[in-house]
Amino acid sequence: MRFLRFDLNLLVALDALLAERNVTRAAARLSIGQSAASAALARLREYFGDDLLVASGRELRLTALGRSLQEPVRATLRQAQATIQLQPGFDPATSERRFTVATSDYVTQVLLFDVVRRLAERAPRLQLSITRRTAGAEDQLERGEVDLLIVPEHFPSAGHPSAPLFSDEYVGIAWTGHPQLARRPRLKDYFAWPHAVSRQQDLRPFAFDDAHLPPGAGDRRVEVFVDDFISLPEMVVGTARLATVQRRLAERAVKRGLPIRLWPLPFAIPPLQETLRWHGAAEADPALAWLRAQIAGLAAPAAPGGR
For residue 58, what are the contacts with CB-CB under 8 A and spacing of at least 6? Predict the structure, then answer.
């Protein structure tokens, strides 16, 4: 189909080429052969009278026109996607829509397990794809690859709509059989005993709580590094290790029968505020609004004071 002499089928290819800046990766993203992607690039160059992508050593870089097209093309495709997916009279009981949610393992554990159980009852044909949040999650939302982000409020934002979801606090945890934990740990105990910590390389190359440790208090002896939160409770069982986790995660571990105890940290860490984000172009989508309401409804009872 052509619009103002432009083949609209090339719009998706243009978005992929400008985003990936690599013909091979763009072809993989479009699920087409490399020769087809190269042919699409040639047609785009002919239409715009510009190279769009030019060689710079072993890489390709965008021309000035290519850079100026990047955001408008992405916005156009996102708006088209939102328009196509609009379904007046949305019925959750019969809808076969598929939504993608990007978030952390922690949010999946303390909230989305409950969400998928609710969807099984209220929207049995709806599909929910839950992916691990990465540093590029906001770009995925912008490109329409992700429908919802659940992220801490301080996570960088492109200015799309958002709503507070729930708050949580951090606590210390240890094995109930910890040989020295007959009393609440003091700051010197915290630094004297070994630790298990979460360190996610793509989001932060250091333990998440390092920035909150009291200055000059000393160095922790870290015995175990993991790239998630949900395995931390298991890492302290049967050892003298301590770990810092979100209260909801620790309480869920206790309910599952894990022999751990919770105790207040001997220093302050600001509470965690999780937020729900979606693309502005999907604001009027009744199906996405319904899904947001289901998630928010299950998050609310878990807020501080509502446990």
Answer: none
Q: Within a 13 Å sphere around the CA of 288, how many CA atoms are in the beta-carbon half?
A: 25
For the chain, what's the residue count? 307
211 or 44, greater pLDDT = 44
* Residue 141 in tokens: 């939302």
Domains and CATH numbers, the chain: 2-85 (1.10.10.10), 98-167+272-302 (3.40.190.10), 170-263 (3.40.190.10)
Q: Strands (DSSP E) along the chain, which ranges?
A: 2-3, 6-7, 53-56, 59-62, 98-103, 127-132, 148-152, 162-168, 170-175, 194-198, 221-226, 242-246, 260-263, 272-278
Alpha-carbon distance 114 to 101, whole Å? 14
State how far the Cα of 144 lies from the Cα of 136, in Å rounded to an integer. Answer: 13
Going by the DSSP 8-state scheme, the letter that residue 271 receives in this structure is: P
Contact predicate 99/290, CB 8 Å: no
pLDDT in tens, 215-239: 766 678 899 999 889 999 999 999 9
CA distance to 169, 231, 241, 272, per residue, from 245 (Å): 8, 10, 13, 11
